Amino acid sequence: MFEHLQNKFYKALHILKGHNKITEINIASSLKEISRALIDADVNYKIARKFIHRVKEKSIGKKVLSSLNPKQLIIKIVYDELVTLMGKKNIEINISKNPSIILIFGLQGSGKTSFSSKLAFFLKKKNKDPLLVAADIHRPAAIDQLKFIAEKVNIPVFYLKESKNIIEILDKSILYANKKNKNVIIVDTAGRLAIDEMMMEEIKKIYTHIHPDETLFVVDAMTGQDAINTAKSFSKILNFDGIVMTKLDGDSRGGAAITISSVVEKPIKFISNGEKIEDMEVFHPDRIANRILGMGDIVSLVEKIQEKFDEKKTKKIYHKISKNRFNFNDFLEQIKQIQKIGNIKNIISMIPGIKESFYSVNQKDSLKKMESIIHSMTPEERNNPKILSDIKRKKRISKGSGITLNHIDIFLKQFDDINKIMKKMNATHSGKKIIKDFISKMMNK
C-alpha cells in the first residue's frame, strides 16, 4: 500500500541540497521528482501541478532554522499539503442511534460484500452488536457469500432467500434487529452502474425508505482515475457520507486514494488492504501522509498491537525466558502473534526509519522460512534448543525444510540473539509497557 509513492518520495527528498535557505535552485530537482511520483502514482496531471505549485509557493525564500535543514523543512510543507489533499482530518462514521443504519453501495466487483463483513467485525470489536442485511436481490450468490464470511466471526446475517421485494427485506430486517437488540444494521446492496437507471432508482428507493445514518460508497482502488470518476457520477445521484477504498493491497501506486477526497469533496472513511476480515482500517489523512513520507505511523501500529496483544501469554513467555526455558515452540507462537497483527509490509511502513533497511527484504518469506525450519525439528529439538549444535541434526533439518545449512545457522543465531534481548526485559512489564518498549526499540533502529 502506497509503496510506489513511498519509494519515489524518498528518492525525491533525498536529493535536496542547500544550507540556510530554500531557493528555486536547490528545490528544483526535488519538486520535479515529486511531480513525477504523483503522476506515476496515477494522480491527475492538473492536481499534481497544483500540488507542486503550492509546495513551491510555500517553500521559496523560507529561511531554515539552525535546528533544521532544507530537507526537513520541505518534508513538513509536503506533509501539510498531502494531509490537505487527502481531506485534512478523519471523519468518523455516525453510529449514534440505536439502531444505527449503515448503507453500503457501489459498483459490481468493488468489494462491497467483503467490506460489509469487515465493517461488522470492526464494529463488533468496538463493543457494538451488528446485524448484516443481505439486500442484493440480483446476484444469486450474494447471500451465500455474505453468510460464508460473516459466520466465520459469528456475526448474524438477515436475509429472505425467496423474496425479491427489497422494501420487504429492509422492513423485516429492522424489525428483526430491534427484536434481537442489534444496535447497528449494515445493509449490503447490489452492485450498480450510474448509467443503469433501474438500479439507480432502486438505491434511491432504499435510501429514501430507510433514511440511513451513514451511507458509504465503495470503490476499487485498482481502477485508479476511474474510481474517482465513478465516485463523482454517483455523488450527483446520491448524497453519500463517505468513501471506502478497497483492494489497496493490490495497488502500490495509491494515486486515487490521495486525491479522491479533494475531487469528490467527500471524506475517505475506511481503507481495505487485504483479504482477511481484519484487513481494514480507519482512514487518517495525517497518518497516511506520514507513511508516504517514510515517517511511519506509530499510532496505528500501537493500535494494531494492542488489539492482538495477549498479556497472559506474553508474561508466560517472559517467565520461561527468565528460567532459561524459552524454546522453539514458544518462538513459533511469537511468529504467529506477529502474523496476526496484519500484512508485514504494512506493519514495516508504520515504523519510522525502518523502511530503508527492509527495502529489499521479503519479511513474509522470512517468517515462513522460520516456520518451516521449526516444523522440520523433532519435538525434542523444539524443546531443547541447545542440542542443535549437532551438525547431523542441522543437516536433517536443512533437508526437511528445503533451506540451506548456512540459513539454518543464521536462524539459530537469530534465535539466540532474540533470547538474549528478551532476557533483559522484565517479566513483570505490563502490556502497555511491553508495547512501549517494542515501539521504542523499533524507532531507535
Structure keywords:
alpha/beta; 445 residues; single chain; eight-stranded mixed beta sheet; Rossmann fold; 434 Repressor (Amino-terminal Domain); flat; disordered C terminus
Characterization of this structure:
This protein has 445 residues and is of the alpha/beta class. It folds into 3 domains: 3-85, SRP54, nucleotide-binding domain (Four Helix Bundle (Hemerythrin (Met), subunit A)); 100-284, P-loop containing nucleotide triphosphate hydrolases (Rossmann fold), CATH 3.40.50.300; 302-443, Signal recognition particle, SRP54 subunit, M-domain (434 Repressor (Amino-terminal Domain), Orthogonal Bundle). It is built from 20 helices and 8 strands. The chain has helices spanning 3-14, 24-40, 45-59, 70-85, 112-125, 142-152, 166-179, 197-210, 225-237, 255-264, 285-292, 298-308, 311-322, 328-341, 344-349, 363-375, 379-383, 391-401, 405-424, 431-443, and strands at 100-106, 130-135, 157-158, 184-189, 214-220, 242-246, 268-272, 280-282. The protein has an 8-stranded mixed β-sheet with strand order 3-2-4-1-5-6-7-8, sandwiched between helices. Strand 7 and strand 8 form a beta hairpin. Helix 12 (298-308) packs antiparallel against helix 20 (431-443) and helix 14 (328-341) packs antiparallel against helix 16. The longest helix is centred in the C-terminal third of the chain and has 20 residues, at 405-424. The radius of gyration is 25 Å and the shape is flat. The two termini are 23 Å apart.
